[in-house]
Amino acid sequence: MKASKRTTAVLLFVLTFTASISLINSALCGEREKQALLSFKQELDDPSNLLSSWDATVDCCEWDGVLCDNLTGHVSELHLQSPDSGSGLGGKIAPSLLSLKHLRFLDLSQNDFTGTQIPGFFGSLVSLEYVNLSYAGFRGIIPHHLGNLSNLRTLDLSGSLEVDSLEWLSGLSHLEFLNFNYVNLSKVPNWLQVVNKLPNLIELHLSSCGLDGIAPLDITNFSSLAVLDLSSNEFQSLVPNWIFTLTNLVSLQLQRNNFEGPIPSAETNMTNLRFLDLSQNRFNSTLPYWLFNCRNLESVSLSINFLYGSISDSIANLSSLRVLDLSSNQLSGKIPWQVGNLCNLQILELSFNELQGELSEVFGSSMSECFLASLETLGLRGNRLSGQLTEQLGEFENIQTLDLGNNSFTGPIPVTLGRLSSLTILRLDNNKLTGTFPLSFGQLSNLEVLVMENNMLEGVVTENHFVNLTKLTIISASGNPLTLKVSEDWTPPFQLTTIFLNLWNLGTQLPLWLQTQKSVSVLDLSCTGISGEIPKWFWNLSMISSMNLSHNQLSGELPDINGPNWVYLSSNMFSGPLPRVSYSVSELDLSNNSFSGGISRILCSNKTNSLTILHLGRNQLSGEIPDCWISWPSLQVINLGNNNLSGTIPGSMGLLGNLLSLNLYDNALSGMIPYSLQNCTRLIKLDLSGNKLVGNVPAWIGTSLSSLRILILRSNMLSGKIAQEICSLSFLHILDLAENDFSGGIPTCVGNLTAMSSESKLANFSGETYYSYFMGVFMESALLATKGSEFQYDTILSLFSSIDLSNNQLSGQVPEELTSLAGLRSLNLSGNDLTGVIPTSIGKMELLESLDLSRNRLSGEIPLSITHLNFLNYLNLSFNNLSGRIPVSTQLQSFSSSSFTGNELCGLPLPTNCTADGGNPGPKSSEEEDGSGSGPEINWFYVSVALGFIVGFWGSCGTLIFKKSWRVAYFRFVVEMWRKVCDS
């Protein structure tokens, strides 16, 4: 009975206590704190109705985002973060929040308080322990009043804020988590000293803060730090050693900082380290030895540095490793086979190094079962790996990305790759793979990207190769002589976005299955043998943005081009007028066809066009170039060469401020070079050759077009003196003014053409390729006269340097300053009226391959220094007034006699022998010819042979005659050798 009474009393006490607590809760929230929250809500913008539950008739502790203390009923936490960044709460933050005296937790992150500052009164909410205002749209300077929050443990203010001082942080002695990512700290040089005063700090995030200095520390007070993120700043210095003494670090992120020098040695083992990211810096050391002792490491990224040396076998110690990224370094040697035993490894990225060896040495039969089961990404692109692809590659159970491109793998593609059921990306491009396209690829049901271009695969590809590739979106297999044979009514199981089948044999017509592809945006069927007219259905593939059908036998007239933005149809047999082009087209190449008529149809429209590349060269276009260029402000490359255009160069071309390359060669243009072209200050190449232009070379070419690298004005009717201002073009490495009517002397300032002064400077200055969204690069080409012929230069154009002033009326001497152009490879001054001697220092032009000084009035001897031109393979000095002996060298005597004819020279390769004084012997007398002369003819060849014999004889035998000790030793040696011969 007593027990039951006691139990009843306890129950009554609990019920009474619970009821009293509920009453306290309801009373407190229902009065001051509820009204404070309702006032707070009233000032806010709430487009997403995040606060719809905040109803005055409901207990505020039941509102969304509001948490109350279970004992006191006071509002303790506000969880008001937006689920979607930028679409949450906005407006003003009312100071009514000051009534929440017991508020410990405040989260307003991911909202949209655009342009407003963090309220200073937040510093009076002294009970706060957690504040998260990250990415909430706040702007301006962080208020110093936050330093009054002495109980604060977590502070996250990441976003577009600024700091003018961090001294207020010193008051937050209990702070454990600090996130200032993307906060501008550039005005706070002592940030590290302030942060070092926070002894309880566990996580520090200062990514993208504009920091440009990181000082050494004698004592680190935040030795309890577990997470340090200083990524994406501007330190550009060595990494301070103190970072690697933080033995409690679990995560270290220093990526994208331009740190340089070696990676510091860790004074103690960082046994707690699990995540390490030092990528995208400029470290130039070997992999740090301490790295392989961090046995708890799960993720390592050291990519995009200058690390060298090999990968240590000690990598086997990193048994917890899940991610290893060492890509884009200079690592060499072999991949250690121990990698194949890392049972937790999911991502192995070693691309773009100099690793060598055969794949079978690592990814062969020695791989562990757990490694085969865990690996999801294997990246080995851009190394020097060789050998055949192993069948064991097909044993990876969960691999999703396999990238073996840009190596030297040979042999067939293993059929076992068809077993990789999880594979989504397969890259085998730019190797030396042979054999056929594996039929097993048709079983890769999850494959999305297939890249195998530039190999040596051959054979027939049928629809069976694609039978289950339902998820395939990208196929890039160009550069393989494969043949596609599918039925005309074939409906592929995939919907492709990108198709690269360059060099495949696709038959005689555009593949009909393309009609089924509704998502294709990039299409390259160049060099595939297709012919005939392009069918109408093809132009209805409205999704195509990039199209390359060049180098085929397509014919007929083109309709107006309204869909694709990048159109390459060169080297076909299209005819008729040019098509009209939509203003949205960015790159257009219709070169090397048979288009006729004028170009006004394509150029003169009322809309501003976005075209950057226009190539209409090698057609049959005629008429004048219209003066419509004001509508083409984005043009960078214009090529109208090899047509029948006439009239003058329109002045509106000078409005093309972005123009890099202007090619109007081989037309019938007349008049002068327009003055307005001086406004095209970005020009790199100007080729106006093969026209009927008159006047002189404008001086403004040298002053306004300072970026010019190629200037070709040959085969016009230009006259006057060569302007001295041309010498100001320090980037110029192709200068061709041949076949004009220039007079006067060659400017002595030619030595200022510094791009030609050495091979290294040429490599730094040149570069005639322009970015093309579709083609990668748009490569320049030029027809240059050198070595007695004309050659088309394209891939090596940027590395070739040439000066051609031939077939003018230039006079005076060849300037000595010309020989300072040691990087010049071709020099042609022939067909002028030059006098004087060949510069004695011509041997300084060590890279010269072609030298033509013929048909001038040069005199004197050929300089002996010409024998230093070891790369010279074309020489023409004919028809001058040169005299004396041809210098003896392997090169000079290998040229034909025509290189020296028309002078008074002697010696090989000419049939004329030289006299004893080195001159031409002149005509023989009749007595010398019939042998009755007073003295015998001296054959200097036999004289030199005799002298050589005498020197050799007395150099050896003479020593034996006059030196007794040598003579005794020699005869002992002969006797001993004779005995050995006899005994045998």
TrEMBL record:
Keyword Repeat recorded: yes
Transmembrane segments: 940-962
SMART domains assigned: LRR_TYP
GO terms for biological process, alphabetical: defense response; response to other organism
Domain of life of the source: Eukaryota
Pfam families from the UniProt entry: LRR_1 (PF00560), LRR_8 (PF13855), LRRNT_2 (PF08263)
Keyword hit for Transmembrane: yes
Signal peptide start-end: 1-26
Cellular localization per UniProt: Cell membrane
Entry similarity comment: Belongs to the RLP family.
Protein name in UniProt: Probable LRR receptor-like serine/threonine-protein kinase At4g36180
Native organism: Sesamum indicum
